[in-house]
Specification:
4% of the residues lie in helices and 34% in strands. By secondary structure, it is mainly beta. A hairpin with a 2-residue loop joins strand 7 (112-126) and strand 8 (129-138). The two termini are 35 Å apart.
Length: 179
């Protein structure tokens, strides 16, 4: 996982490098802005494939599936898509009264990419009191991020990604009193 965040105070307005000598209206509109971003990149969430039943007859749920030796992400004509994220031929239900050999969290789901952005403007009211206007854009590029696929080897939707991991682009505006 990689996360980068930062805030940049624009050098515009009274006491700044640009428009410091401009009239009051220009400084009120153009001054005291800051820009920020949070960039999140993730290679994918780990998970493991489950047998989908109490195959070992121990009374415990979520027993692991049997690996057949095939590449779980595909080979020999298998093309990985969001509707077929896993190669179904790589997994099977274990033999009765045995545990599967699937290891814990050895499969990786789809990547996650997100960029959030914000712009904020401070309006000084008194020496230590500011009114701040904020515009925040979450998932600014409207990147579709998917959840892990169905991991039950006996499910009809096994290996398919059925849901998104997060919402699409969201925009919000706020006023905040900073003291």
């Amino acid at each position: 996982m990689f996360v980068l965040s930062g805030v940049y105070q624009l050098p515009v307005g009274q006491g700044k490098a640009f428009l410091g000598n401009a009239n009051k209206l220009v400084q009120t509109v153009a001054g005291n802005w800051s820009l920020g971003t949070i960039i999140t990149l993730n290679s994918g969430a780990p998970f493991n494939v489950l047998a989908g039943a109490d195959v070992a007859n121990t009374g415990g749920p979520n027993q692991r599936a049997e690996r057949t030796g095939a590449n779980p992400y595909g080979s020999d004509g298998f093309h990985q898509t969001y509707r077929d994220w896993l190669n179904k031929a790589a997994f099977a239900v274990p033999t009765s009264f045995t545990y599967g050999n699937e290891r814990r969290n050895d499969i990786v789901g789809p990547t996650y990419r997100n960029v959030d952005f914000n712009a904020a403007k401070n309006f000084p009211i008194f020496e230590s009191l500011n009114l701040q206007f904020r515009a925040e854009l979450f998932n600014i590029f409207n990147q579709t991020n998917y959840s892990n696929p169905d991991n039950g080897v006996q499910d009809g939707t096994f290996g398919q990604i059925l849901t998104a991991a997060g919402p699409g682009r969201e925009v919000q505006f706020a006023l905040k009193l900073v003291f």
